[in-house]
Amino acid sequence: MLSSQSKPQRQYPRSHEPIVWSLFGAGGMVVAFLLPAAVLITGFIAPLGVAELPILSYSLALEFCRSWWGSLFILVCIVLPAFHAAHRLYHGMHDLHLRGANWLMLTVFYGGASGLACATLFYLWILRH
Amino acid sequence: MNIAAPSADIMKVTVQRYRPEQDNEPWLQHYQVPFSADTSVLEALQHIKDHLDPSLSFRWSCRMAICGSCGFMINGVPKLGCKAFLRDYSELHIAALDNFPIERDLISDISGFVENLETIKPYIIRDDPQELDTSQPINQAFIQTPAELSLYQQFSQCINCGLCYAACPQFGRNPDFLGPAALALASRYNRDSRDQGQEQRALFLNAEEGVWSCTFVGYCSEVCPKQVDPAAAINQGKAASTTDYMLNLLSLSKSGEKE
Ligand code: SF4
Ligand code: FES
After folding, report:
1. Predicted structure pTM score
2. Which fold has domain A57-129?
């Protein structure tokens, strides 16, 4: 077997970072590919009347939001970027040497993103009822 | 016109001094060093030691960016002294590598870095250790194709100079972080077709002190004199660690649960 170690061995517990890192990565993809198009359509093209898009009439838009696909789209567009931002801020604060107690940081950033996720789910649920 | 005569330009060189037996903290000493177009920072230090001040201490050996012993902060940037030239500067400020304790003058104590290198088991591991028993006659060749070699070759170019550790803000804040070169070396062995030690190394890589302390600053890859690109190795390691984490959740993999 391997040579025996004389020093006491350090412990290397598994990090749970993969969970938030996956959400961060997925959020990055959404921010890069999905969000610009969504902002362009709902924030500029529709309100400025650049193009007549029937899907953007109130009734059709509401129907879209109530559909499973629409709900999923809204959830993805809001929740994943929120986790992306939370992760960035959490580590950014560390890099800037602005760091409070870890539980507080986790609660504020990832808790905030989770809160937003719950609020989104709740709102989507209200829309359907 | 005097083209043939070597120019006897003089540069002001500021060197960080620290002699533990008499100094409470590092201080700066100034020297005037003659140089020409091909004078390296290492040669400037050698000039100081040979002609101006024999008490100055610094490490060097190969003078050709191979041994990795002449890393300094040169005007605030981690560089090899033998690979940086006075012609590129108007004034020089040389200090010991950041993020390491100073042993003396320009000599950093890199023992923490060396321990981190040892931690990741930088050698070929086989499930059957008998295969590596050098007391037995070799009866098996571990053949490797050029394609298999190319998977890890880049990460095997490291000369352990420690520049990436001086560049890494995360190592600066937490010396338990295994750091760029050690993680790149772990990747080098994990990618080696002859190696079977991925599971043993996953224990370290999956930890906070492993790939997860990195926030992809990327400065390590910028300063590396051998284009090892440790930042890429670490981020590919994050993807691997995430897969391992998910598989572990599905309890398809047992790595990380044992000692
Ligand atoms: S990865 Fe590059 S900078 Fe880091 S120790 Fe190796 S050669 Fe030096
Ligand atoms: S003296 Fe060997 S790398 Fe500079």
Report:
1. 0.86
2. 3 helical TM bundles of succinate and fumarate reductases (1.20.1300)
